């Protein structure tokens, strides 16, 4: 059988001018499948027909291996007299183990593991989520430059491994609160792309009904999106206190940036959380710059994972989703065991400036940004791992990319066509469950009422 495949592959190479190189026979057949045809003189046009690749099954960590195999091996309708070589999911490596970067630790005898397992299903899910966040942020950039999105807008592209890695390690019932760079977390917490983009454009269909904007998005167990630097940290400690009080074995992930790391309220929150042993994971997303100031110019100590003093800490490669996932699992287990809070520093990077008003190249070079993109991009890193370990094909990623771009374009269409909220709803939803109240001073000629 192997000899037969070798003969076929050599014949294909002669026909197409392609070179086998370092490819395996099966990989070559996948790459060259569009050239494999059987035609007759009576049907010359048929040879020019391009095969439409099959759509991958829905990516879910709950799908069984048998379901995944059957979903891929359904025969495709194709013209008579045409042979197409396809590849079933059974050909792929279902699971692999990877060496990951060792974390630096503070006040811990041991840290997270240095090896991480990844299943094919997980890898595809992670890739889809991170690529969706990336494309969503690039679309937000485009809409802002078209003046369709106005006001503050802080983009998350480059940091996708942080959001996806954290989400992969905690439960949906756990809690999360972050600062104003919140679009990625809003998506990983379950909000649709079209609701996020509609919120950015101020439309009724936005996640906060068009009245929150970029910095104020919410979802179940997700508390924003907060515009005041560092103010979300004491709120997160309070949520962790509620978890402890209710005894529900839940944790609160409380995120802040390196620019907020010197705020006094953060250290007050650390102190209370340590005293009361709150189940709080404090996470500093260190993207190297607080607005336009590098961490070296802003902090006497840039070892942010040590800044909790008596709180244990770990420093993590925030560009590697597996590192983030394993470290967050470790931190969550620490909190659930009743050991109190833990501090994580995710070393990451943002490709855009601090906000849309910041070009991002006045305090750093374009070469620096490009170097990070070429060497440490979280999406490319995951993709290369899966390709090099035969966990997926390049064709699958291409199909997924096309689907994601279509999804983003449809969401953008909704975000630009959905109506803005009417004036009479301006004061609604001030309170969650109170009777309507009059809102003074909104208009000298009318009294607006708030409806919860």
Percent strand? 5-15%
Arrangement of strands in the largest sheet: 2-9-10-6-5-4
Number of continuous helical runs: 14
Structural class: alpha/beta
N to C succession of SSEs: HHHEEEHHEHHHEHEEEHEHEHHHEE
Mean pLDDT: 85
CA distance, first residue to last residue:
70 Å
Uncertain segments:
20-26, 32-86
Radius of gyration of CA atoms, rounded to a whole number: 25 Å
Q: Could you describe the largest sheet, including whether it forms a barrel?
A: 6 strands, mixed
Number of strands: 12
Percent helix: 25-40%
The backbone outline, from C-alpha atoms, is: globular
Structural write-up:
The strands form 4 sheets. This protein has a 6-stranded mixed sheet with strand order 2-9-10-6-5-4, sandwiched between helices. It has 14 helices and 12 strands. It starts with a helix and ends with a strand. It is about 40% helix and about 10% strand. The protein has about 450 residues and is an alpha/beta fold. Helix 4 (about 120-145) crosses helix 5 and helix 4 (about 120-145) packs antiparallel against helix 13 (about 380-390). Strand 11 and strand 12 form a beta hairpin.
């Amino acid at each position: 059988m192997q000899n037969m495949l070798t003969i076929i592959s050599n014949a294909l190479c002669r026909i197409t001018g392609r070179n086998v190189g370092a490819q395996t026979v099966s990989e070559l057949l996948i790459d060259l499948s569009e050239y494999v045809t059987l035609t007759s003189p009576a049907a010359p046009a048929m040879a020019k027909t391009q095969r439409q690749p099959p759509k991958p099954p829905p990516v879910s960590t709950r799908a069984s291996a048998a379901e995944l195999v059957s979903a891929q091996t359904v025969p495709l309708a194709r013209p008579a007299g045409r042979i197409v070589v396809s590849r079933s999911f059974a050909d792929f490596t279902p699971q692999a183990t990877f060496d990951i970067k060792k974390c630096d630790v503070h006040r811990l005898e041991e840290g997270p593991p240095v090896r991480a397992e990844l299943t094919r299903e997980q890898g595809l899910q992670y890739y889809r989520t991170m690529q969706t966040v990336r494309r969503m942020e690039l679309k937000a950039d485009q809409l802002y430059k078209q003046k369709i999105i106005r006001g503050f807008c802080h983009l998350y592209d480059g940091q996708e491994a942080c959001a996806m890695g954290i989400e992969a390690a905690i439960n949906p019932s756990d809690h999360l609160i972050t600062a104003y760079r919140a679009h990625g977390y809003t998506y990983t917490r379950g909000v649709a792309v079209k609701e996020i983009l509609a919120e950015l454009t101020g439309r009724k269909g936005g996640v906060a009904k068009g009245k929150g904007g970029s910095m104020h998005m919410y979802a179940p167990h997700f508390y924003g999106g907060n515009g005041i630097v560092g103010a979300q940290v004491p709120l997160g400690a309070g949520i962790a206190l509620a978890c402890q009080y209710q005894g529900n074995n839940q944790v609160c992930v409380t995120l802040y940036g390196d620019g907020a790391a010197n705020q006094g309220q953060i250290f007050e929150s650390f102190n209370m959380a340590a005293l009361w042993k709150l189940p709080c994971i404090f996470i500093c997303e260190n993207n190297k710059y607080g607005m336009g100031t590098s961490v070296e110019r802003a902090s006497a100590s840039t070892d942010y994972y040590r800044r909790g003093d008596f709180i244990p800490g770990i420093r993590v490669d925030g560009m590697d989703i597996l590192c983030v996932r394993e470290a967050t699992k470790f931190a969550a287990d620490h909190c659930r065991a009743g050991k109190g809070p833990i501090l994580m520093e995710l070393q990451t990077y943002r490709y855009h400036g601090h906000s849309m008003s910041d070009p991002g190249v006045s305090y750093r070079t374009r070469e620096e940004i490009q170097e990070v993109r070429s060497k440490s991009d979280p999406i490319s890193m995951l993709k290369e791992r899966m390709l090099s370990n035969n966990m997926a094909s390049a064709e699958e990623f291409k199909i997924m990319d096309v689907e994601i771009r279509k999804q983003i374009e449809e969401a953008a269409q909704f975000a630009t066509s959905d109506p803005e909220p009417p004036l009479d709803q301006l004061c609604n939803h001030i309170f969650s469950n109170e009777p309507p109240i009059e809102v003074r001073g909104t208009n000298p000629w009318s009294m607006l009422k708030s409806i919860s």
